[in-house]
Amino acid sequence: MKSVWILVCGCVLLAACSGGGNIFSKKQSATAILAPTKGNSVSGTVNFTQKGDVVVVEAKVSGLKPEGTNGIHVHEKGNCTAADASSAGGHFNPYSSQHGGATGEVRHAGDLGNLKADANGNAQMSIEVSGISLGAGPNSIAGRSVIVHAGMDDLKTQPAGNSGARV
Ligand code: CU
Ligand code: ZN
């Protein structure tokens, strides 16, 4: 089976981008390992599975603020080398759209909405997203990064939902 390494950064993910997280793709699925950025302790895994025209995104993240809400997105560049993950660039936006949520007409392809943490700072999310793919082409997320933010994505403020630092 052909394997492709995808770098995930993320603010959460990438943990910082410190090594970066790696999105490991096996054709129809890919995984991003989230590592904390400097001064944070967020970690986790985000799995992407192609299902027809949509991609199922399953995230399991820990180290978040208890009961907090945290924006999560696929960012443009698979570069998590900066301590604050700024090297990951902005939201993955192959169609030059406005920022939005995980669903709806107006959204960046990389917009995944928010994670909602429980009392222990753990969050799980499973959603189906359109506009991205694991294959080739302009909307492929292979080699890009996943970032978790310190605050809530309001799903409307441009260009990034005002979700704060990359954790
Ligand atoms: Cu982001
Ligand atoms: Zn966005």
Question: Describe it for me?
Answer:
The protein has 167 residues and is mostly beta strands. Helix content is 0%, strand content 35%. The protein is built from no helices and nine strands. It has strands at 4-8, 21-25, 29-34, 43-51, 54-62, 69-75, 111-116, 123-129, 145-148. It is globular. The site of zinc ion has 6 residues, from loops.
Summary of the model, kept short:
The protein is an all-beta fold.
Topology (SSEs and partners):
Elements: E1 4-8, E2 21-25, E3 29-34, E4 43-51, E5 54-62, E6 69-75, E7 111-116, E8 123-129, E9 145-148
Antiparallel strand pairs: 1-2, 2-3, 3-4, 4-5, 5-8, 6-7, 6-9
The structure holds copper (II) ion and zinc ion (ZN).
Provide tags for this entry.
167 residues, mainly beta, 0% helix, 35% strand, disordered N terminus, binds copper (II) ion, binds zinc ion
Helix and strand string, N-terminal first? EEEEEEEEE
Number of helices: 0
Q: Give the proportion of residues in helices.
A: under 10%
What Rg is obtained from the alpha carbons, in whole angstroms?
A: 14 Å
The rough form would be described as globular
The largest β sheet comes out as:
6 strands, antiparallel
